[in-house]
Every structure is written in C-alpha cells, then in structure tokens.
Automatic annotation (TrEMBL):
This is Aspartate/glutamate leucyltransferase. Belongs to the R-transferase family. Bpt subfamily. It catalyses: N-terminal L-glutamyl-[protein] + L-leucyl-tRNA(Leu) = N-terminal L-leucyl-L-glutamyl-[protein] + tRNA(Leu) + H(+); N-terminal L-aspartyl-[protein] + L-leucyl-tRNA(Leu) = N-terminal L-leucyl-L-aspartyl-[protein] + tRNA(Leu) + H(+). It comes from Spartinivicinus marinus. NCBIfam families: PRK01305.1-1 (NF002341), PRK01305.1-3 (NF002342), PRK01305.2-2 (NF002345), PRK01305.2-3 (NF002346). The gene is bpt. The lineage of its organism: Bacteria, Pseudomonadati, Pseudomonadota, Gammaproteobacteria, Oceanospirillales. Its EC number is 2.3.2.29. It comes from the Bacteria. Keywords: Acyltransferase, Cytoplasm, Transferase.
Amino acid sequence: MSNLKALKFYATQPHTCSYLPEQQATTLFLDPDIIISKPLYSQLTDLGFRRSGQHLYRPHCEACCACTPVRVKVDEFKLKRRFQRILKVNHAITLEIHPPHYCDEYYDLYARYIEARHADGDMFPPSKEQFNSFLVGDWSFCKFMECRLNDKLVAVAVMDELAKGLSAIYTFFEPDLTKHSLGTYCILQQIRLAKSLGLPYVYLGYWIKECQKMSYKTEFRPLEIYLDHQWLTVL
C-alpha cells in the first residue's frame, strides 16, 4: 500500500457547483505527475476518490458535504422486478469487453448521447479530443463493456477493475432506445461481472440527495455510503 502522507494533492479555487448551482465547489486532485497504479487507485477509491480521465479527485468543499461516494454490495444485491424486466427486454443484447480505445463507431454514439441527454452540461458540445482525454488511456485496469443489439452498437460502459470492485466511470448509449433503460442495464451487467470476478463492490461515484439526476443510484441495494471516513450500509 502507498504511503498517502507522502502524496501531493492540489485544491482548485472555489467555483460554481455543477450539481448544486447555489453552492461553491472545491475539488482536491492527486498530483498529476504521479502515475496512477491499480494499488494506489484502489486505495484512494476506498477513501472516496474518483477517476476522470488522467486525474484522481474528490470533492473538498468548505461549506458543503452533499457529494457522497456510494457503492453497491454485490453479493447481497437484490434483483427487483424492475431490474428483471430490464434484463428481459434486453435479452438479445450481446456483451464484449475490450481495452479502452478510440473508434468512429464509439465516438458517433458518444456524440449522439451527449447532444441528446447533456446539451445543458459541461461536456457539450462533444469532440473527439474530449472523448479521448476523458475515456481513452493506456490503463491496464480500464475496460470498455460493449453492448450490441442485432450487431448494432447501442451502449458502452467504461469501467475500472480495482482491488475490491468495479468502478463505473461513464456510460453512453443510444438515446432513442428509451424503453431499453440502457443506463440501468449497464449497471446491472457490471454488478454481474463483478460477482463473476469475485469482487465485492461496484462503485457508482458520487450521490447527491438533492440532485434528481443522481436518484437512480439509490435503486441498487444494498448501498453503502462513505461517511465520516468509513463505509456504512444505508439502503
């Protein structure tokens, strides 16, 4: 394990929060000159950190603690009826796991997704440079879960395989296939994959109670949150 006291971290200047506009946000980043190894990354993830592209970070806000790291307990996960229906609707989807890489097919789907679902967000407008810097890198722990329906690419789930679980980094999917609930479907498949690998958790990033866009994360139970320097089962 790494000696965390020897690591350097840098805090950003306060800026408007992307999720709670009335709040000022500050982000703590690991020194970008430090190589992100799987052991170090795993250790920091268990302390509430998250990866975005080449950076490991976590919220470090002075007056707000709304961003809560959450993870699903894989072995105790409950496949409720809604989830069963989603798996049934998507029974014809085929899955393949690939190393992270760029291809036009991936980017075209990514661009359609951003333009349809996140035109009001920081990632709009999409670009190939953005796609590569955010999702593509030379990391042995990163995988692309490719989902195809009748040979057509319909979703890609980007995930990192860590010491204790899979970290769900980002998912983009065909925005017109609303009845397929592809975002939820990809999380269900990551939970299945984690179980097959003997990994106890799937990390879902940060959850904010007041943010409607993040409410879906509480559907995956039992759910643990990182609070006061420890993981607690809350749902």
